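Quick one: structure for this chain?
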Amino acid sequence: MDEYAFNGTGADLDGAVETVAARMAGDPQPGARARARVKASIARAQDAVADAADKVADKVVEASAKANVMADTLGERATDAYGKAVLTARQLDATIEPFVQERPYAALGIAAGLGIVAGLLLAGRGPKVIYVRPRA
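Got it. Here's what it folds into:
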């Protein structure tokens, strides 16, 4: 069998590769330098992963803070809009109430007319389908 032939597991392959590389380089301690380089590479990779995790965590905290600020702002805007709508409704009620008290039948006719117009606008006139015949 060839001295560089391999038969074994992944861990065996790692050791075999280190040994062959060391023999080819003339290293008296086969694999020692390769192990040191691999360990250094693993350490650098772990540091890079830790740095990336820290950056991601910082970005998540920033995004959470921004989301909280936006939620607070939207809540304030919704409260303001609701207050304005209530005020407008009360002003409209104060304007319409005397008219309804003085002329109830006219107010009823106007409300019915507006209801019919709104219903016609919302209902439309049925489906809008266009049939196209193929040319002969």
